[in-house]
Design brief:
This protein has helices spanning 2-28, 31-41, 72-83, 198-209, 216-222, 225-231, 243-254, 263-268, 277-287, 336-340, 372-381, 405-418, 443-449; strands at residues 124-125, 135-136, 308-309, 349-350. The chain is mainly alpha-helical. The model is unreliable at 1-26 (pLDDT under 50).
């Protein structure tokens, strides 16, 4: 009897060891199948096609504007201007003078997007821990603040962006070729006539919309004149210090903000232990059963050429939040259609990049989801939530995916951590030329940030 018991225990132990070995072998084997599926999905025919360049490899940053090649001097100037609160000089009320910057709505440790559901620059106070504490300044009425009517897109991996904003409104080329008839609908969109790429065109518009000023008097007073001289030596001095050259510098800087240290990127470059087993399983789901690759298939996991889809999510004004400067008549509620005016474009939005979404906290153009798990579950269910979006407009790609709980878990882990670069603050300056606090410079923000 004792011998029988020993034999049974031995067989049980052997079975357990074999099971563990098979599991380990299965985990080790994930790299080869993942490489194979990426070879199939990549437009280059190789998984290496998903690798991003180094941020300082200027020659290999794609989609550069021929009028604005990336140089180190432009990148350094753009980095400073993006965080410079001293440019906030067209504020509605004196309380907000030099109190906000571009980075007020694009905070590095929030994936270079807003720390709250809606970005606010002029007309807001406070910062909290990472932008979530920002709120309307009591001296402003809601319609007076500079608030974004759609969730601000992150300013990371934008070298893979050819036409800016959710509607792809800005940029003279690529998906906007053939849309020239709508470029005169307002004075801002008319910049597309200048034959610029999306980042350059949008940034010039943004400096106007977000009440920031760049001229020779400003660059002299803040200490940026020499940096403009270094960045744009071929532009005559009479045309060198303005919003357009500032926009060009910020565009050059944008193209270098790459999440090239995320685990997936490191795995692609040969560090096979950079991703966990669960993240690798999630990547297999992403590029396999879930079909995410059908829309997200570039190194930044956006779409190229840009594509626009109606997913039936709620708009910002339909949210539970107290939002400003938007409502039912806002053209941003109809996406690409608000720009082109075409019936087939109504309610369609650009496919965004997917890196560093874990700490963003609000998802889709209307901030209707507050976790990546909710986003995955929305796609898995395949049921539109916004009754105002006609069924005829909903993308055929939004359909039940029939993912199991484990597959949802794995896919969420890949999105949350496999695509997360933990060191985005490396792209922020240690100080700006003005010496002001940043990204905000109002008294409450300074106190909460421990600044000055």
């Amino acid at each position: 009897m004792k011998k029988l018991l020993v034999a049974v225990l031995f067989l049980a132990a052997l079975a357990y060891v074999i099971s563990c070995e098979r599991e380990v072998a299965s985990d080790l084997d994930l790299d080869s199948p993942l490489e194979a599926i990426l070879d199939q999905r990549s437009v280059t025919g190789s998984y290496t096609g998903y690798i991003m360049p180094e941020s300082t490899d200027y020659a290999n940053l794609p989609n550069q504007d021929p009028k604005n090649p990336v140089t180190e001097a432009k990148v350094e100037l753009g980095r400073m201007l993006f965080f410079e609160t001293g440019l906030g000089l067209e504020n509605k009320y004196p309380a907000s003078k030099q109190a906000y910057s571009c980075a007020s709505c694009h905070i590095p440790n929030r994936g270079f997007t807003a720390g709250r559901f809606q970005g606010i620059a002029d007309g807001a106070i406070g910062f909290g821990q990472s932008g979530e504490g920002r709120s309307k300044n009591p001296v402003y009425f809601g319609h007076e603040v500079d608030a974004q009517g759609a969730r601000p897109l992150p300013t990371i991996n934008t070298t893979y962006v050819t036409n800016a904003l959710w509607a792809g409104t800005f940029g003279s080329f690529n998906v906007n070729e053939g849309t020239e008839s709508v470029w005169n609908q307002d004075t801002l969109i008319a910049i597309n006539h200048e034959q610029l790429m999306g980042l350059e065109a949008n940034n010039a518009r943004a400096l106007v919309v977000h009440r920031q000023v760049i001229n020779r008097a400003v660059t002299d007073s803040l200490g940026y004149t020499a940096m403009f001289d270094a960045a744009f030596p071929d532009i005559p001095q009479g045309s060198r210090y303005n919003r357009k050259t500032g926009a060009f510098a910020i565009a050059a800087y944008f193209r270098t903000i790459l999440t090239n240290q995320a685990p997936f990127q490191r795995w692609l470059k040969g560090e096979k232990d950079a991703m966990s087993t669960q993240q690798k399983k999630g990547a297999v789901v992403f590029f396999g059963k879930a079909g995410c690759f059908n829309c997200h298939n570039t190194p930044s996991l956006n779409a190229f050429p840009h594509r626009f889809f109606a997913l039936g999510v709620n708009n910002l004004y339909q949210s539970k939040y107290n939002v400003f400067a938007t409502g039912p008549s806002d053209k941003r509620n109809i996406g690409r259609g608000g720009f082109t005016g075409k019936a087939e474009d109504m309610h369609k939005y650009k496919v965004p990049q997917l890196y560093n979404l874990k700490d963003v906290g609000f998802y889709f153009h209307g901030s209707s989801k507050t976790s990546l798990r909710e986003v995955v579950e929305y796609f898995n269910a395949g049921i539109p939530e916004n009754p105002e979006v006609p069924a005829s407009q909903i993308s055929s790609l939004l359909r039940p995916l029939n993912l199991s709980k484990d597959e949802v878990d794995n896919l969420t882990e890949f999105l949350e951590n496999g695509l997360f670069d933990p060191k985005l603050e490396r792209y922020a300056p240690s100080r700006t030329m003005s010496g002001n606090c940043f990204p905000n410079n109002d008294p409450l923000s300074r106190k909460e940030m421990g600044c000055n």
